[in-house]
Design a protein that fits this description.
Mean pLDDT: 77
Radius of gyration: 26 Å
Largest sheet: none
Order of helices and strands: HHHHHHHHHHHHHHHHHH
Helix content: over 70%
Distance between the termini: 13 Å
Number of helices: 18
Shape: globular
Structural class: mainly alpha
Number of strands: 0
Low-confidence stretches: 46-56, 59-74
Amino acid sequence: MGAYILRRLALIIPTLLGIMIINFSLIQFVPGGPIEQIIAQMEGEGDVFRNIAGGGGEAGNFQGEGESAYLGARGLPPEFIEDLERQFGFDKPPVERFFDMIWGYLRFDFGESYFRSISVVELIVEKMPVSISLGLWSTLIAYLVSIPLGIRKAVKDGTPFDTYTSGAIIIGYAIPGFLFAILLLVLFAGGSYWQIFPLRGLTSDNWEELSLLGKVADYFWHITLPVLASTISAFATLTLLTKNSFLDEIKKHYVITARAKGLGERRVLYGHVFRNAMLIVIASFPAVFIGVFFGGSLIIETIFSLDGLGRLGYEAAVARDYPVVFGTLYIFGLLGLLMGLVSDLMYVWIDPRIDFETRET
């Protein structure tokens, strides 16, 4: 197993490098880079940039200069453009810029945002609590509800219980998460009916004044609706996956043999079927969590006024804030590849009969 882990770790390097090369190459053909954003701002056209860059960073320094409006009105001199390119590093060839970026990333130096006076790491850490909250609780709730419900549906396959719950699951799967979020707001956040949950934010304004128990209650009070909106589609998919996995195992010969030996249905179900049926469901937990965590629904974060990684990625892409775009891509790509290895290890932990060591690479 040790040799397999080393091989997988060694494969992470070229895989991550390939991801960065492809994305860096594609970004060279995208119009409207950061310098164009600054020029548009000076000429009064950069609305997106103005919303993002108000607080500092390299671009903010140019925005605050007294001559910006005058320079934008009469046309920017070439010397000023060259100075901008030099400060952003665009005076270097793309290949040199790429290797400079990768060398910094190898030392976990991700640079500073173009349009904010903060490093990329600090920016990610600042937004991470929202994404962790949505990803962690959505995944846990989906698993805690879907696995027992999926098992029950498999055992009661073809009964009215299976039919009714399947209808509810199909409806839940068909409703987009953002539409369900709006419905929750209308019903429970003061839209047209009840004002039970807060409309925005992860905590209340008086968070610091609350006791420890009060902070916990306030946190769950704020996170309830966003988590429910994020969970609905994952809940439906996971329930059907669990049911189908159990149905496949229940029909196999070893289950028939166990029943013929006189074992009780509960012993057969949870002593023999569960481990095999849950292999794919439980072992995929790290990958599912990382997917929800990284994916951080932009629409749900916007609806509930949550400032998480979803909005960060969107704003960075729109503003062409390349240090944030590539820094987050590198960090998330690395973690995603590591979680793939963790998922394989969980397969072995759940079912020791699996031996990745004998597989060809």
